[in-house]
# Entry
Amino acid sequence: MSTQPNPHGVPASEMTEIGTGHESPPRRTGVGVMTEAVVPIWTRQLAAIQHTVQGGTVELLTSVASILGLQDQLSAELKNLPADAPFTQALQQLNDEFQQQCEHALMALQFGDRVVQMVDILYQDTERFALELPGMQAANPADAQAWLNALEARYTTDEQRQFHRGEEAKPAQDNVEFF
# Structure
């Protein structure tokens, strides 16, 4: 079958095969082709990022938990030392600083949970976009705004909402919320 356009400008490969009873499915072009090719790559990459961050976060949390266990053992041993010994006070102060640093490290690990959650929202939105794109041929600005409003409603942090609106993100507060 020829791929040359007929006098109406439609390639023969997209025309119904007359007399055979079989219709050739129209080939996707333009936005459809791009969406079918690109969006699955985006979603796989987002899933890979999410998996990598989750794995790294679990490893870090496990390591910090082990360190905290050792710190607890050190605290217990320090209680057995004579309180009036000159080195006891120095060791106790060092132990307290060590514990503070470990607690700070645990709070810093919250980034992994945040990144996974942020990526998941985008992953789900790209999947939804790919599924609904074929029906968006008549979309208008109100439809686009409704889509963006729905996306923004799924965000879990003020930082995401600020970025969504193109605002500069305000510094994060120190209150820790593990997901």
Observations:
- DSSP finds five helices and no strands in the chain.
- Residues 31-79 form the longest helix (49 residues).
- The helical segments are 31-79, 86-108, 110-132, 141-153, 158-164.
